[in-house]
Amino acid sequence: MKLKYNAPATLTFALAAAIVLLIDQYIMPGIIEALFTAEGSLTFRIDDIPAYVRMFTHIFGHAGWEHLLSNLTLILLLGPILEEKFKSKPVAWMIVITALVNGLVNAFFFESALMGSSGIAFMMILLVSFANIKAGEFPLSAILVVGLYLVKEILAIFRYDDVSQISHIIGAACGAVFGFARTVGARKSVPQGVPTPGGGGQTIAN
Predict the structure, then answer these.
(1) pLDDT tens digits for 30-50?
(2) For residues 122 and 175, is the Cβ–Cβ distance under 8 A?
């Protein structure tokens, strides 16, 4: 039996985040604040090119090991499922797009700086709900996941803490958009009238 790098996008992301925190904690303190934290509206300048880079890199920065592990637990659980379903390259692009959307929204609308991969984790939570959607069907479990997580995060907005619930909601919204887009794309790619095995002419889109 040999080890397999079974989910390249997920494993590479997790490894990079762990290395960044390791360097910040033990080798170069302050590197996360300098390079892996996205600006809020108070410090963001439209002509600051490095600030746009940090809109992507902030997902690799974490406040500590507990922060990192709480996010990676979900990402390492869900990421391989998504890569098996949607392939590694699309999942990698979904991570990049979610990071950028979160960074842009935070820079223009919220004062606090932003770091961490919880937005990516919530994107994956919503996206995995779409993994088994078939043509003409929308599973009740997906609706419940969307509803429960969004209600939980909306209520948490009114509680003062250091957690960005808006980042969670944006990540979840990105996951929902990606899920709908992939599902609609899969349905369109299947010729109408293609029968399922033994299914008597039912159209499929998996």
Answers:
(1) 999 999 999 998 899 999 999
(2) yes
Q: In terms of C-beta density within 10 A (0-12 exposed, 13-18 middle, 19 or more buried), how is residue 3 classed?
A: exposed
pLDDT grade for 25, boundaries at 50, 70 and 90: very high
CA distance 17 to 117: 9
Tokens matching residue 8:
């390249």
Cα angle 114, 120, 121 (rounded to 5 degrees) comes to 115
> What kind of fold does domain 8-188 have according to CATH?
Rhomboid-like fold (1.20.1540)
Whether residue 96 is predicted with pLDDT greater than 90 in this model: the reply is yes
Delimit the domains of the chain by residue range. Answer: 8-188
pLDDT tens digit sequence for 146-184: 777 777 766 665 555 455 678 888 998 899 889 888 776
Please state the pTM of the whole predicted model: 0.81
- Rounded CA-CA distance 172/150 in Å is 8
CB-side neighbour CA atoms (13 Å) of 165: 13
**3-class secondary structure per residue, 146-180:** HHHHHHHHHHHCCCCCCCCHHHHHHHHHHHHHHHH
**Cα 85 to Cα 82, 127, 130, 179, distances in angstroms:** 5, 11, 10, 11
